[in-house]
């Protein structure tokens, strides 16, 4: 395998649908919005095209390539922070008219061999969204135990051969040194996983697991969702696009939890905790979008609206 790969243009999933849902907040085109995951800027550019001169858009992204892309947007209404989207928590209470989270990995990230996200191209086994901090997958695998690796692959990849893959990784490390390239990892998994899902590379779940783990993606999502409740104004929209069941489950359960009044049965005369979100439903890509962009097929967008804060 060579280190070179064609760079794929990123196609933003559910572009119109997400921006339409976001801007149906009470503030509309004059509001202050957050694109919590800038990526390659598809959603941000469309939001800016729909905002009035009073509107504002703040974006977040950990990826240096995304920050460089954002620098191309010359617009006084726009700013970006080189931070993860859990830093939403730093914004003032009730200061935002809508938050959009697109949890997908952008195509240029996946298709760039040196980033180490894909088993289709050989490259260093990195997978960090922010290459300026933290340890790479290769560095983690150099010291992790069989139990630690098993837990990550099982919990974040939902891989039933997690123990066998973990055992093979540690055995390989003891025999020839730790794995350091995507091709070596993909080959080891292929040699270990004997039954394959139709149309899916046997390494898919393991790569997903390591990427989610090394970037603490699920923990960051939970923190960002909690922060969004506080920063959203009444009538503001929360729009989240997820691409696999672990993320969607967190989003679905978060919205469900805050879409009902909660009575503390231990304190029967206490006022119930007010519902804080109205669930507005979910949207999936059209057959036409999936045909044009197969990577969109697993996307689910969930929408909720911040309720009035009781006095």
Q: Report the helical percentage.
A: 25-40%
- Indicate the CATH class of the largest domain: Alpha Beta
Largest sheet: 7 strands, mixed
Proportion in β-strands: 5-15%
How many distinct domains? 2
Beta strand count = 7
Query: Strand order within the widest sheet?
Result: 3-2-1-4-5-7-6
Structural class call reads alpha/beta
Distance between the termini: 63 Å
Shape assignment: globular
Rg over alpha carbons: 21 Å
Topology order in helix (H) and strand (E) letters = HEHEHEEHHHHHHHEHEHE
Please name the CATH architecture of the largest domain.
3-Layer(aba) Sandwich
Low-confidence stretches: 1-7
- Provide mean pLDDT, rounded: 89
Write the layout of secondary structure elements.
Layout: H1 15-22, E1 32-35, H2 42-50, E2 56-60, H3 64-70, E3 78-81, E4 96-102, H4 107-110, H5 137-141, H6 146-157, H7 162-176, H8 182-192, H9 204-214, H10 217-231, E5 232-242, H11 245-257, E6 277-283, H12 287-292, E7 300-306
Parallel strand pairs: 1-2, 1-4, 2-3, 4-5
Antiparallel strand pairs: 5-7, 6-7
Summarize the structure in words.
37% of the residues lie in helices and 14% in strands. The chain has 311 residues and is an alpha/beta fold. It has a seven-stranded mixed sheet, sandwiched between helices. Strand 1, helix 2 (42-50) and strand 2 form a beta-alpha-beta unit. Helix 6 (146-157) crosses helix 9. Mean pLDDT is 89; it is low at 1-7.
What tags apply to this protein structure?
DNA polymerase, domain 1, seven-stranded mixed β-sheet, 12 helices, alpha/beta, 311 residues, Rossmann fold, 2 domains, globular, disordered N terminus
């Amino acid at each position: 395998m060579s280190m070179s790969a064609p760079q794929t243009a990123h196609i933003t999933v559910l572009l119109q649908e997400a921006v339409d849902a976001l801007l149906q907040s009470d503030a509309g085109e004059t509001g202050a919005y957050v694109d919590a995951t800038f990526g390659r800027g598809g959603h941000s550019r469309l939001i800016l095209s729909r905002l009035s001169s009073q509107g504002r858009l703040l974006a977040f992204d950990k990826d240096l390539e995304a920050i460089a892309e954002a620098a191309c947007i010359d617009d006084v209404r726009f700013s970006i922070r080189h931070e993860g989207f859990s830093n939403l928590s730093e914004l003032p209470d009730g200061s935002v008219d809508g938050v959009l989270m697109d949890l997908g990995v952008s195509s240029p990230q996946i298709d760039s061999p040196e980033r180490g996200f894909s088993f289709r191209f050989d490259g260093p086994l990195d997978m960090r969204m922010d290459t300026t901090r933290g340890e790479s997958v290769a560095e983690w695998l150099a010291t992790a135990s069989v139990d630690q690796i098993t837990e990550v692959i099982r919990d974040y990849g939902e891989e039933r051969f997690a123990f066998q893959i973990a055992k093979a990784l540690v055995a390989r490390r003891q025999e020839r040194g730790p794995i350091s390239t995507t091709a070596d990892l993909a080959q080891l998994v292929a040699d270990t996983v004997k039954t394959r899902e139709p149309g899916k590379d046997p390494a898919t779940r393991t790569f997903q697991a390591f990427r989610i783990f090394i970037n603490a993606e699920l923990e960051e999502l939970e923190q960002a969702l909690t922060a969004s409740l506080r920063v959203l104004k009444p009538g503001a929209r929360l729009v989240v696009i997820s691409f696999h069941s672990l993320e969607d489950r967190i989003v679905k359960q978060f919205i469900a939890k805050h879409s009902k009044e909660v009575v503390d049965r231990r304190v029967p005369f206490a006022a119930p905790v007010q519902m804080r979100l109205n669930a507005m439903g979910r949207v999936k890509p059209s057959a036409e979008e999936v045909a044009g962009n197969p990577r969109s097929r697993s996307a689910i967008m969930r929408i909720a609206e911040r309720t009035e804060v009781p006095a």
